[in-house]
Each structure stands twice: as C-alpha cells, then as structure tokens.
Amino acid sequence: MKMSILLLSVIIIHSYFLPDGLLVLRQALPWFIPLLFTIGMRFLLIKRTGFKQLDLNKFYIFLLLFDFTWLLVFWGLRDGMDETLVAIEAMFDILILTWAIALFPNRKAMIIATVPLMVSVCAIRLNAYPQSPLFPITKLLCFVAIVSTGQKIMESWFIKAVSRDVENKKLVRQFRRLALIDGLTQLSNRRQFDTIVEQEIRAAERNHNPLSLIMMDIDFFKRFNDSAGHSAGDECLIAVAQVLTETVKRPRDLVSRYGGEEFVIVLPSTDLQGAAKVAKAIRDALATRALPHPSSDVSPRVTMSQGVCQWQSGMSSEALIIAADEQLYRAKQAGRDQFKVNG
Fold first, then answer.
1. What's the CA gap between 220 and 303, in Å, rounded?
2. Where is the GGDEF domain (predicted)?
3. Domain of 24?
C-alpha cells in the first residue's frame, strides 16, 4: 500500500508541474477510482487473512487485477498529454522491478505480475511512436530476458542459502547433542546432568515441589573388566543403561552416566518414598535382566548399589550430590545390591 501511495504521489507531483497538469489529473480522475478500490481491498484482504493463509490462485488473480487498475490509470494519463510518457514508462519500470524482486521465489506469480506491465509499456510506446517500433520491442524482449534470467539466478541463490542454513542448523543440533550425550550408553552425560540438576533445583525452589536424586554404582565393575575384558564391560554398561531408561519413563526424569560405572537419576516432583520405589524398580529390573557377572562377591549377575536423597530448601546441587553419594557409600558398606535412603 505504501508503494502504491508513493507512486500516485509521484504522478500527481510530476503532472502538477507540466503544462495543464491539473487539467490532466482532473480528466484522469475516473481512471484512479479502480486503483484506489483495489488498494483498499488489498489492505482489507491482508489484514483479515494474511498472506500465509491466502490461496495462491486468489493471489494470482489479485496480481492481475492490481496490474489492470494501474494500466487504467497510466492509460488515462497517456491520453491526457504526450509529456507524461517518460514518467509513465518510469513508473512502469519501477513497478516491474518491484514485483520482480518481491515475487522472485514464486516464478508463476512473478510472471503474472510483470509480463502484463512489460507488454503495456511496449504498447504505450508503440501507440505514441508507431514509426519507431524497434526500441519498445527490443526493450520488451530485454526486460523479459533480464527478469527471467535474474529470477533463476536469485532462486538458485535463495535455495542454496536456505539449504546451507538448514544444514548448519542440523550440524549445530548434532554438535549440541554430541556435547550432551554419552557416546557409549547414549544417556545424558555429566555436563547435561549438571545443567539439568541446577534447573530442577531452581524449579523446586520456585514451585515448592520435592526433588530427589539417585546415585548408582555397578557392584565390582572393575573385577568385571578384569575378568571379562573391557569390550564386555562396555556391553554391560550399555545393557545397564537400557535397563535404567526402560524403568525410568517420565518425560522430565533424567538418567545420566555420571562417570565410569556410576549413573545418576534426577527425579523432579518426587519425594523420598517415590524415589525409593524407583530404586527398588531398578533393582528388580536388573534382577530380571540377569546380566552375568563373572567375579562378583554379591551375585552371579550384575547388581547395583544405590543412594537415594531428597533435596532440601537451600541445598545446592553440590550438597545434593554429596548427600546422595553418602547414601551410596552406606549401601556399599551394608553389602551392596541394595539402596539406602537419607533421613
């Protein structure tokens, strides 16, 4: 709409300084009515629907109607006096370039918007100077070639830029994921755990909800590696990680590899009683899975010791981890393959 008002202002100002300019404008006034009507309809259409929900076929029809109203205006000015021909051609060129730049991603829309204007410029020039047809026809062909070729070039640049941007975003997401995921178990790593536990502590402080933490350690895992080898140890870690993720299913719960054979679980909105149930479910799931352990003093299968702790108001993340680690130490001292709860 601003572009249309600007072009109308240029035409009016230009005509005012020409001989009989005001008379020309008065004679051309009826030709302005369809243009003003289309501008008003365009404003209402954009305001009510928005171009995102606008049907493309309706948009193409709108482009043709808009160009047609401009043709009426320019044709009316052409009939007024010969001195306006240069101004009319200049306005047409501006419209053509504006449509070409604005609509270059949509080739069909750009052709529908620009070709009628190009042909009209050629027709007006031929009507004014029929004895010199070479210039307007050459200009028409050059404009068509320039706009068509330019659209292809800009479209290829546009597609490459979008593709490059999408690829960069994918790489960034992949790098972020790699930075936050443990490569062996595919669980969250220590960095991700440190970030999430801080966030959950702030949420617990804000919402006055309980927050619990479980620290876990595979019993006699060093002996497992020494007896079965590191490759089997890695397979054991992967299997234990699968047991944990299958047991802890709530979306906000976080299962992380804390380091080596140690794992940690963050349980938002969970008190000690709920966390103890999770610890028991993990112990039972490991027993059901019955992963063989070649050199454990506790059981012929893989077991875990667990320390369960609930966050208290004012407790930092470091203090929460230390409290859970103390309960883990108690579970080991008590004979392993069990969990201890603070308080």
1. 9
2. 209-343
3. 2-164
